[in-house]
Amino acid sequence: MTAESSVSGIVPPVALTMGEPAGIGPEIAAKAFAALQGTLPFFLIGDPRHLPEGVAFTRIDTPADALGAKSLPVLPYDFQTPRVPGVAQAEHAQPVIDVIAQAVDLTQNGRALAVCTNPINKKALKDGAEFPFPGHTEYLSHLAGDAHVVMMLACDALRVVPATIHIALSDVPTSLTREKLAQVIRTTHAALIRDFGLDAPRLAIAGLNPHAGEGGAMGMDEIDMITPLLDDLRAEGLDLLGPLPADTMFHASARAGYDAAVCMYHDQALIPIKTIDFAGGVNVTLGLPFVRTSPDHGTAYDIAGTGKADATSLINALRMAHQMGLARRQEST
Ligand SMILES: NC(=O)C1=CN([C@@H]2O[C@H](COP(=O)(O)OP(=O)(O)OC[C@H]3O[C@@H](n4cnc5c(N)ncnc54)[C@H](O)[C@@H]3O)[C@@H](O)[C@H]2O)C=CC1
Ligand SMILES: NCC(=O)COP(=O)(O)O
Q1: Closest residue to atom 39 of ligand 1, CA basis
Q2: Average pLDDT for runs of 10 along the chain of length 333
Q3: Does the CB atom of residue 279 touch ligand 1 within 6 A?
Q4: Is residue 283 within 6 Å of ligand 2 at its C-beta?
């Protein structure tokens, strides 16, 4: 019995947001639909005028209408004005935010299976609509009642979690408290069991400083906070490696020793995965009451409107959203 057939009722489609219309979101949405050929039901929420010229689409009134659609199903959201590829427009900021909220609402009330988001330009939303969140992750946490969420990027070869996300490097040491790191490790561990189907996840925890502090010669954060925390979590039964020097924990044989790496800041986590598999990586938010995935890349303004965008990361994100959404439905029956 497949996951799909074991769940009663019709499985709703995944809700895909348009994201920043001036970026590559419209193009990769159309390419993903063409590649998936209806094998993975999803619908786009956005303004159909923002799709590349000539892309066939089906205007839908409700998510269920997407099932069986012969061309890209679009639940229309009026952005008022056309897009200019490569140029963020202030008047699009609020509609971009509203579309994300609509996708979440449809998922939380069971009309969509999961949320998959196309990339946004965080600064454009801040400038155009005073968006108070650094990205989707924090906004989704807010929409879910301030859920403790964690950002994970995943590809076949590696899963990484930045414990601090979109903050200045100079703010990392003060933001990285024992409580925060404990919450990130616990949320990651639980999600590897619930959403990735692992029985006994092994986590590798990076140090903050070069050489993980080298016994205090290059920083005290490992001795003062990270090591004691890891010892306490091991006593609870978690399988943890570290704190490890970040420069030597991502080569192939090191990666074989763990299921996910928890890193101390954004670039420590994202540089290795985007180097290993920029085209195929998926961003997934852990700790939400619903499933949310996204491609690992950004708006790619430099190629927007050229037809050169690669939809692989979005296709993988849609696949992960669908699989996790099905598993969550099964859990609830
Ligand atoms: N989930 C999200 O909403 C994310 C949003 N962003 C936002 O995207 C904007 C641009 O960020 P950048 O650092 O320039 O990263 P980017 O990922 O947009 O672009 C980096 C380079 O990779 C290329 N590229 C990216 N995706 C591609 C694809 N699918 N096919 C072919 N080439 C691709 C671009 O053309 C560019 O040369 C920023 O405003 C950032 O905040 C960045 C990452 C994730
Ligand atoms: N660098 C990753 C990124 O910007 C994704 O952020 P989010 O919008 O998914 O929170």
Answers
A1: 121
A2: 49 97 98 94 97 96 96 96 93 97 97 98 96 96 97 98 97 98 98 96 98 97 98 98 98 98 98 96 98 98 97 98 96 81
A3: no
A4: yes
**Ligand with an atom nearest the CA of residue 304:** 1
Both 128 and 240 in one domain: the answer is: no
Count CA atoms closer than 13 A to 169's CA, side-chain side: 4
The enclosing domain of 214 has a CATH number of: 3.40.718.10
Q: How far is the CA of 263 from the centre of ligand 1 (A)?
A: 21
Residue 274 annotated as binding? yes
Residue listed under structure tokens 């890891």:
230
Domain range holding 237?
A: 150-287
Taking alpha carbons only, the member of 193, 195, 191, 220 closest to residue 208 is: 220
d(CA 92, CA 244): 43
What are the φ/ψ torsions at residue 153 (nearest 5 degrees)?
A: -115, 135
ipTM: 0.98
Residue with CA at minimum distance from ligand 1 atom 13: 298
pTM higher than the cut 0.90: yes
| Same domain (yes/no): 271, 332 | no
Say whether both 163 and 106 belong to one domain.
no
The total of structural domains in the chain comes to: 2
